[in-house]
């Protein structure tokens, strides 16, 4: 029986600038998405209906019913293509859940790519991306991987070049943070401030293009960090530990609670991961590289 497999990476935000709330309730964003080498796998085979079975270390934290983003994605694609086909999906989850790593969005993108192939649709990228945007702000980037500037809600993408592979450590935390709750806290914290239009500094794109890790380290920034720290003060200990252990820089990833640390090279990232894991300030620490590609 034909089985199609998509391998989809986690994402981190090297820069996340959160603007004012729009009339549709979303925040205007300017961000740099960067896919890293931690992958979920989505496999699809023909079936009458769309169902999902979840395996792997984070299966217990992932819904296996129709609220699973992979199921929602496959159904949205079938509707868009006016198909009655179904698919039995298997999601192998290595990306922690509700961690600020967009694992759910990765699975949605994986299901779109796998079902597009399984059902022989061969939809152009722009149409898949339109279905993806209807599923969530991070899903269009999850279809492409690599590194990209995201604007709007994050769904308008412009790929950006990266001059050399980058080495990161992801420090995960026990228990997730709800993305809407983190945004609500940010709105509370900024209620008496004027919020400027979001922007990605040109210096950051220049540092990425030239592979200058020292310049990049000084420019990593996340507007949501303040809110994530307010909700989970212990993340301050994780960030301090990483810096004391020699990270070039550390920030909260997306809406958290995962913290990301930039290392000078692969050896330093390996040593940093060991040190962070032993520090008692995180649940696990994993050395990864970026930019990572989507595999089908
Ligand atoms: P983002 O940064 O994109 O908001 P996140 O990385 O913080 O997301 P996810 O791991 O994508 O968080 O999970 C967000 C929520 O989506 C979880 O509460 C989870 O219950 C739900 N969810 C639905 N389907 C999935 C899936 N396939 N994998 C992970 N979470 C899923």
From TrEMBL:
Citing just one GO molecular function, the answer is:
ATP binding
Give every GHMP kinase N-terminal domain span: 68-146
Which InterPro entries does this UniProt record tie to the protein? Answer: GHMP_kinase_C_dom, GHMP_kinase_C_sf, GHMP_kinase_N_dom, IspE, Ribosomal_Su5_D2-typ_SF, Ribsml_uS5_D2-typ_fold_subgr
Return the EC number.
2.7.1.148
* Listed GO biological process terms: isopentenyl diphosphate biosynthetic process, methylerythritol 4-phosphate pathway; terpenoid biosynthetic process
Q: Which Pfam families match?
A: GHMP_kinases_C, GHMP_kinases_N
Task: List, from the UniProt record, the residues annotated as the active site of this protein.
Answer: 11, 138
* Pathway it works in: Isoprenoid biosynthesis; isopentenyl diphosphate biosynthesis via DXP pathway; isopentenyl diphosphate from 1-deoxy-D-xylulose 5-phosphate: step 3/6
Query: What is the documented function of this protein?
Result: Catalyzes the phosphorylation of the position 2 hydroxy group of 4-diphosphocytidyl-2C-methyl-D-erythritol.
Q: Which family does it belong to?
A: Belongs to the GHMP kinase family. IspE subfamily.
How is this protein named in the record?
4-diphosphocytidyl-2-C-methyl-D-erythritol kinase
């Amino acid at each position: 029986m034909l089985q199609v497999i998509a391998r989809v990476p986690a994402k981190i935000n090297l820069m996340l600038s959160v603007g004012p709330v729009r009339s549709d309730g979303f925040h205007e964003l300017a961000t740099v998405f960067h896919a890293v080498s931690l992958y979920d796998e989505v496999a699809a085979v023909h079936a009458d209906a769309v169902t999902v079975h979840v395996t792997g270390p984070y299966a217990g934290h992932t819904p296996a019913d129709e609220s699973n983003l992979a199921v929602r994605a496959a159904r949205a694609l079938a509707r868009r293509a006016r198909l009655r086909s179904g698919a039995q999906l298997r999601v192998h989850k290595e990306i922690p859940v509700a961690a600020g790593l967009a694992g759910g969005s990765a699975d949605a993108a994986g299901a779109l790519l796998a079902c597009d192939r399984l059902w022989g649709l061969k939809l152009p990228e722009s149409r898949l991306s339109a279905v993806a945007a209807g599923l969530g702000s991070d899903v269009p980037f999850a279809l492409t991987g690599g590194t990209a500037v995201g604007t709007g809600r994050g769904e308008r993408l412009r790929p950006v070049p990266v001059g050399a592979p980058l080495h990161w450590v992801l420090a995960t935390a026990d228990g997730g943070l709800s993305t809407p709750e983190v945004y609500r806290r940010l709105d509370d914290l900024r209620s008496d401030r004027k919020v400027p239009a979001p922007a990605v500094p040109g210096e950051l794109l220049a540092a990425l293009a030239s592979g200058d890790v020292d310049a990049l380290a000084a420019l990593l920034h996340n507007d949501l960090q303040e809110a994530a720290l307010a909700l989970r003060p212990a993340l301050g200990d994780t960030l301090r530990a990483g810096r004391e252990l020699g990270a070039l820089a550390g920030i909260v990833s997306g809406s958290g609670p995962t913290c990301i640390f930039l290392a000078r090279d692969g050896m330093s990232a390996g040593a940093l991961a060991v040190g962070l894991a032993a520090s008692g300030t995180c649940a696990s620490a994993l050395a990864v590289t970026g930019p990572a590609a989507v595999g089908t």
